[in-house]
Design a protein that fits this description.
Distance between the termini: 33 Å
Radius of gyration: 19 Å
Oligomer: single chain
Largest sheet: 3 strands, antiparallel
Strand order of the largest sheet: 2-3-4
Shape: elongated
């Protein structure tokens, strides 16, 4: 949170002398991974960050900067940005898919961002991977277990995305098969 706060300060510029607020800062919008409660500005959890549960990001930054702060899932934020100023401009319906340490999507229908009943619309990474055997701990294998960047690196015994790309470029059959499966 401190690193994010420092980045906001850098973008916001200098604070007015003697004032609690920044000169031209009208509000803050943050896209964070995993399910969020946008009404309360709380990041509910993210499986890939230990001890990340019910983090009141919105209230934290609203207090620190003295402006309204909005918190949304990062892929929903990305979908909204694509809809407003990116490749999705002019589209009424859009799905923005993100494959990283997890897998998720942001979905717009009729120009409206979907949140779902429990703010988990687009959290597709935990869907069961069709036809896969259960994991070592006997739970169903999910799309993230097979297709996320983290899963691909682990299965290929590689450290970085650059290593994965290099293995693909040189035609490493095992890595190519893993990516095709993903």
């Amino acid at each position: 949170l401190e690193i994010i706060g420092e980045a906001i300060e850098e973008v916001a510029g200098p604070r007015r002398a003697g004032a609690r607020t920044w000169r031209d800062l009208l509000g803050i919008g943050l896209g964070v991974p995993g399910p969020v409660d946008p009404e309360r500005g709380v990041s509910l959890y993210y499986a890939h960050l230990p001890n990340w549960r019910d983090v009141p990001i919105g209230p934290h930054f609203a207090e620190r900067f003295g402006v309204p702060t909005f918190v949304e899932n990062n892929l929903r934020s990305m979908a909204l940005a694509e809809h407003c100023v990116g490749h999705g401009r002019g589209l009424r319906n859009l799905v923005c898919l993100g494959v990283r340490s997890g897998i998720g999507s942001g979905i717009l229908v009729d120009g409206k961002l979907l949140h779902g009943a429990h703010n988990t619309a687009g959290e597709i990474g935990r869907w069961v991977y069709p036809g896969a055997k259960p994991t070592k701990d006997d739970r169903p294998t999910t799309i993230e277990d097979v297709s996320s960047v983290s899963a691909l690196l682990a299965a290929a015994d590689l450290a970085t995305v650059a290593d994965l790309s290099a293995a693909l470029e040189r035609g490493d059959r095992r890595v190519v098969a893993l990516v095709r499966q993903a």
